[in-house]
Amino acid sequence: MKKKAQEKKNAHLPYACIFEDGAYPATVIQRNSITKDSTIFARIAVEIEGCFVIGIRFPKGSKFHQDTLEINDIDDLGNSIIQGKNGNYYVIQAKYEPF
Length: 99
What we know:
There is one protein chain. The protein is mainly beta. Helices cover 0% and strands 43% of the residues. The chain contains no helices and six strands. It is globular.
């Protein structure tokens, strides 16, 4: 009897995902599509689960700390774009160096 092939981790993604669940350092650029303002956060933590960015750990006191974020996948290079409320979106470049 043949053994059933084990399902590949993250088979739902069209590329190989190298990120395991956890927090990773990232550069995050916040952009407001209405005002065109931008804020750059260097080396802050992003939370990844199942190759999806599920959260950004903004510094205490940041006005983006309470922003509601849409969950989005992260590619094998660490890139993701997260949509927030009120016209904000976040361009993420994560590094595979778990905190």
